[in-house]
Amino acid sequence: MTDLQRGGPDASTRTKTPTIYDVAKAASVSPSTVSRALARPGRVSAATAAHVRRVAAELGYHVNLIAPGLRTGRTSMLALVVSDVTNPVYTEVIGGAQAAVSEAGYVLVLIDAQESDLLEHGGLVRALPAVEGVVLAGTRLSDAAIGEVAGKRPVVVLNREVAGVPGILLDSAYGTRAIVEHLWALGHRSLTYIGGPEASWADGVRLRGLRDAAGDLGAVVLGSGPYEPTVAGGRAAAAALPDVLPTAIVAYNDQLAIGLMLALQSRGIRVPEDVSIVGHDNIAPAQIVNPALTTIVAPLHAQGQAAVNAVLAALKNPGAASAKPVTLPVRLVVRGSTGRPRARSAG
Amino acid sequence: MTDLQRGGPDASTRTKTPTIYDVAKAASVSPSTVSRALARPGRVSAATAAHVRRVAAELGYHVNLIAPGLRTGRTSMLALVVSDVTNPVYTEVIGGAQAAVSEAGYVLVLIDAQESDLLEHGGLVRALPAVEGVVLAGTRLSDAAIGEVAGKRPVVVLNREVAGVPGILLDSAYGTRAIVEHLWALGHRSLTYIGGPEASWADGVRLRGLRDAAGDLGAVVLGSGPYEPTVAGGRAAAAALPDVLPTAIVAYNDQLAIGLMLALQSRGIRVPEDVSIVGHDNIAPAQIVNPALTTIVAPLHAQGQAAVNAVLAALKNPGAASAKPVTLPVRLVVRGSTGRPRARSAG
DNA sequence: TTGAAAGCGCTAACAA
DNA sequence: TTGTTAGCGCTTTCAA
After folding, report:
1. Which residues in 62-91 of chain B line strand C, with CB less than 7 A from it?
2. Residues A3 and A16: beta-carbon distance below 8 Å
């Protein structure tokens, strides 16, 4: 009777997943013994445990994540929110998160905001009851909304500081300083920053870092933007550049930098002879463009892993003081897209 | 008492998600009325329904996907299996799948095999009880293993034909024919195919397609491989090429083609003057390399969407004859990486 | 139109 | 060491 519910008209062809009761019957023990043998081997005689395990394997039994989730809140699922799956930055983060998650025997629920805060919120709301914790890698949510989620589940945020929520940050101050010093050493005395999305916390940090470092050296930083953090956004930024180009451009991320470079090159402008370009993140395509992109190497894979592990730790030990942010080191990698500025008649 | 279970020592700070009982109490109706008001508005008086909805909204109530899942098997979750999340091909597919899934009010569980069939199988086994259906985009599983999964949940496979399992295929025969004809028209009389992973079904299809088309024209196809379907794999393939280079190379996918191109260029070999290169899939970086890559445009986003919709359709209508594969059209896009072969002394 | 009750698969108490 | 029982949140009969 109840079997009919789950399969519908076609139930006959679809095999029912064996339950703990099926195993119990086949092994002639009680369901709780099966549960113990599988989850807590120490609390069952070795012989029984072995027997139950064998029977379970024969039947192809696997715990149904759903049921214990209902009782204990342990669903073995974690949510990962990204603003755009096709962005190579998140691709790396997802990879790291996935590695950590599968090592812990968990499962990853992916929520792609598709750059829409409505979709992001909707997806998160739907997934929330099913997951034990949340990693927000690239979120467009407000601090208040994040706080609300953090009130229900352990949350870890990437590249953003939110009061009371643990974060995995990058040492952007170091990165931007390294960029400015590199450009200064080459002879650049001013640079233009091509900004990313307004809702991006990292964007503000990067511009500020550039300004601070430039100020110390006596260099000038011009800001421009916001732009979509994509190759297309970079092309748009190139179109909006003044006729007298800056000698050096620093972009919010590599995708912008690449779009910018391609657009400028198609106008006959040479990189780095006419303009030096620097990106952020070191995504795979940064090494594919010609010239290869000078950029800030961010440990994206490690960030994804660290975030998942932090959520897992918060789950295991809810009392621990957790809200202190972790900062991961970055470094500048110099490639072909930066060089000495040409001497020019006027600025 | 039972509240303590879910939160642990820190439960005081973590808010409990409101349940249907909380709403029922607040609205002074029975739980079943709440359930009906939310899910089946027609079966409840308009006034009650409105009232319940208002109260639910005030409390911030959302259905817990877990609970109905236990009863009916409807968890509103779909699994998507990819062999490597960082591969831009899957990135696009994931994007398409995510779009379709979120439109249907579902949630996506991502399983990244990390190119390991063990991890893939483990992840799938863990996720299976929690999901209603499965999309296998890039799986290294055997036909038997796929059949087993298909026996438990609706499954749709991408780029692979598995008996009894519906698939979303690409018109590779057309694509490979277009490649061969394009190269033939340029003057190439033989080409080398750089193969992808052995476990890839598409790899065999592509090689066969090239051979068939070449045979009709009187051209020759040499095979090489298998290689990892990555940029690094392409570099490895370049190193293994004979001293006398072929005039035209067709790669299993764009990543291989790009790695190959970069490695050859770093050896001073010019593309397309010395070697013409063709890829498959048209991932974003194909337009970033210099020269841009001639390749087969695959509707990856649409494939992801179509796969999800097919699973959803199978869920809604389990009786429908579903195992007939769908073939999506592809087209050749000619860019800078292919050209006329130079006249040469000997082959 | 509404309420009461049972049960999905599992596990934590409690009892034996 | 093992079995029994109850209940997680929800939906779906069945009854009122």
Report:
1. 67, 70-71
2. yes
Mean pLDDT value across residues B61-71:
80
- Per-residue pLDDT tens for A91-128? 999 999 999 999 998 999 999 998 888 889 888 988 88
Strands B107-112, A107-112: pairing kind: antiparallel
DSSP A62: -
> How many angstroms separate the CA of residue B226 from the nearest CA in chain A?
22
CA-to-C1' span, B161 to D5 (A): 49
Contact: A130, B7; criterion CB under 8 Å: no
Judge: A70–B66 Cβ closer than 8 Å, yes or no.
yes
Task: Name the residue facing A73 among B6, B67, B114 (closest C-beta).
Answer: B6
pTM of the model: 0.88
pLDDT tens string A227-285: 999 999 999 999 999 999 999 999 999 999 999 999 999 999 999 999 999 999 999 99
For residue B275, CA distances in Å to A108, B33, B261, B286, B345 come to 43, 71, 9, 17, 15
Residues of B in contact with A289 (CB under 8 A): 288-290
pLDDT of residue A347 exceeding 70: no
